[in-house]
Write a structure and sequence with these properties.
With 374 residues, this protein is of the alpha+beta class. Helix content is 73%, strand content 8%. The protein folds into 2 domains: 191 residues, Four Helix Bundle (Hemerythrin (Met), subunit A), CATH 1.20.120; 152 residues, 2-Layer Sandwich (Alpha-Beta Plaits), CATH 3.30.70.270. The structure holds guanosine-5'-triphosphate (GTP). Guanosine-5'-triphosphate binds next to strand 1, helix 6 and helix 7. It catalyses: 2 GTP = 3',3'-c-di-GMP + 2 diphosphate.
Length: 374
């Protein structure tokens, strides 16, 4: 897999992971936020309902005690009064905890002070009600006043609690929308960033490719061949196998340019590059190293093998149909070959120099031939 594709897959995987993580987090938030806040207000509402129930109990147990002034009825009523006291405490605490607006509930809660002021007298009347029927009328009146006040308090608090819960739900909805929008924004930004990184890396890779590619023929250029040569030579040193280098030069190319024009010369170079590329092995490296000169690097190839391959190339170029050339019957190439052996020490400069000398010899001997240097 090429590095760009690997990076692209890595970025795509990271992006998918981010999308999943943010999506899950947003979903969990939206799902839970409303539920938790709702549960808080529900708990307080149930406290208020219990307060209302105790208020009704106060009326009922007062009537029972007045109708049947027995000790067990007195005890029941006294215990309800104790619960009413503690409920008042719990309710005040609940209001403070939920940070409700004191302006809204303050006047209502002030009524609790009124109830508190009356409770000691009410308890004392209840205490005496079994043995002293003369207190019944006062007890009845006072219990009714306390009950009315408590009923008013709890009904008002219910309304305040309900309004606050509705407000809280509205806020939660907005908050959820804000979080989801933020998540989408973050994802969009990350997406754009990843896309930009991918583009930049793509351009960098294309640029790197350009620096090692010949623009006319699309073959690797001289720089690419030098890089590959170094790797090939060190590999040859390690595995003890020979390596050959051929320099392939078009004959009388100037004539083609002069007679048919530069564009035709370009077309011939492209056709020659394509043809040579089709003839060489996968493991060989064919590069355009100069104007009308090509280099062929042949790893693990001795003199004999290299000469044979180059002879085949020369022969095939001679019979290559090139209808674009009007200046001469055919295009031919001269080839200089040099082979390096690890036991004799291989070095790029000497190998190149030998191949160049062989090419010179081929040209000198009349062109359209292969000359090898051991
Ligand atoms: N069309 C075209 N011509 C090129 C290119 N690069 C180099 N040339 C030409 O190739 C020709 C090379 O000429 P010479 O070095 O005299 O070599 P030659 O004419 O092939 O002669 P021998 O190599 O001695 O057989 C010159 O005319 C260059 O202008 C190119 O990219 N396109």
């Amino acid at each position: 897999m090429n590095p760009r594709r690997r990076l692209r897959y890595t970025l795509a995987a990271a992006f998918a992971l981010l999308v999943t993580a943010l999506g899950t987090a947003s979903w969990l938030f939206v799902d839970n936020a409303g539920r938790y806040i709702g549960a808080d207000y529900t708990a307080f509402a149930s406290n208020l309902v219990r307060g209302q129930h105790e208020t009704s109990l106060l009326r009922y147990q007062t009537e029972t005690l007045l109708a049947h002034p027995r000790p067990e009825h007195r005890e029941q009523l006294l215990s309800t009064l104790a619960v009413i006291r503690s409920r008042e405490h719990t309710t005040r605490h609940g209001l403070e905890q939920r940070e409700l607006d004191p302006d809204a509930y303050g006047p209502v809660v002030a009524e609790f002070d009124d109830v508190n002021a009356r409770l000691p007298r009410l308890e004392s009347l209840v205490d005496r009600a079994v043995d002293h029927p003369e207190v019944h009328e006062e007890l009845d009146m006072l219990a009714m006043e306390v009950e009315d006040t408590l009923a008013f308090i709890y009904s008002q608090l219910h309304q305040i609690n309900h309004a606050a819960a509705a407000e809280q739900r509205r806020m939660t909805r907005w908050l959820s929308i804000a979080v989801v929008t933020l998540g989408v924004l973050v994802l969009a930004i990350i997406g754009v960033l990843l896309w930009t990184i991918d583009k930049v890396v793509g351009q960098k890779t294309a640029l790197e490719r350009l620096t090692v590619t010949d623009s006319l023929t699309g073959l690797p250029n001289r720089r690419a061949m030098v890089q590959r040569m170094e790797q090939t030579l060190s590999l040859a040193q390690r595995n003890g196998r020979p390596v050959s280098l051929a320099l392939i030069d078009a004959d009388h190319f100037k004539t083609i340019n002069d007679q048919d024009g530069h564009p035709v010369g370009d077309a011939v170079l492209r056709a020659l590059a394509q043809h040579l590329g089709q003839q060489v092995r996968q493991t060989d490296l064919l590069a355009r190293i100069g104007g009308e000169e090509f280099g062929l690097l042949m790893p693990e190839t001795d003199e004999h093998g290299a000469h044979e391959l180059c002879e085949r190339l020369r022969d095939s170029v001679e019979s290559l149909p090139l209808p674009v050339i009007r200046s001469g019957p055919t295009l031919t190439v001269s080839i200089g070959v040099a082979t390096g052996h690890p036991d004799r020490g291989i070095n790029f400069n000497t190998l190149y120099l030998k191949a160049d000398q062989a090419l010179y010899a081929a040209k000198h001997a009349g062109r359209n031939r292969v000359v090898s240097q051991p």
